[in-house]
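Here is a typical protein record:
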Amino acid sequence: MKQNKTSWYKIMNMFFLLAAVCFLGGVLRECVQNEWQIAVDGRQIILRILLCLVCFVILHMAKCLRFYLVLMEQRIQFGRFVRMYLKTTFVNFLLPMKSGELYRIYCFAHETKNVSIGFVSVILDRILDTCVLLLFLVPYDLIVAHEISIVTIILTLIVFVVGAGCVFLYSSYGYLNRFLMIHGTSKRTIYLLQILEHLKMCYDYTAGLLKGRFMLILVFSCIGWIFEFLFLKIMAGIFSIEFQTAQFAEYIGGIFSSDTGMLKNGYVVISALGLLLAILLAFVGKRRRSGKC
């Protein structure tokens, strides 16, 4: 059984990675067809690319450490965790509509041998990251754009629903548990009690996970968004594209849609190639340490 699970895991890894590479090929083809126009000379390009590289490393270090804090209790070996972060982020960058998050959930559920922990950890990481993002989007929409965007509304509703669900579970668990045990007599009651216990376990895991780490996770998330903005701004300068807070808000909206553009495509291509290189280096490093290379 264990051998079958391992084989299936390898097959799923291969499938998602190949799908991501296919999407990368599509983005590269679109970039070639658009015939990018470089707006700076050779020396400036080198300098800007180096600055992009610095921003790329810092933002992914911050995001990786943020997610590691979320999963710290699982005691995943750090080198292995980094390799998992790189491959899941590579897939997530390229698959549309953030569908790569499903792959991330699958990988970490397999690693922790617990589907609930894999699911809750990824969702919690996304929710906390979204909270930091809303600290930028809400003031921008109210003060600059003078209207609340659809993306801001959707993200706010997601955070609100998750938060309200946690509050409801915390305040109602005892009553619901007693009510079902006293008045329930059918098989459905046992099923509902199992669901309730499962939700309570997820809540307890989340509450224990955030204790003492909440602010640190938010700080790493802030660092990630700041350097992502800087990365995009520097890259926009290469193509002589205006990039301020308005363009950043539009870029955020484009993440959750299939919209394409020179800046978004460029960011995806550079980030994906950087992650692919990091994956290859991590794999080679692992092989050398194991004496197989």
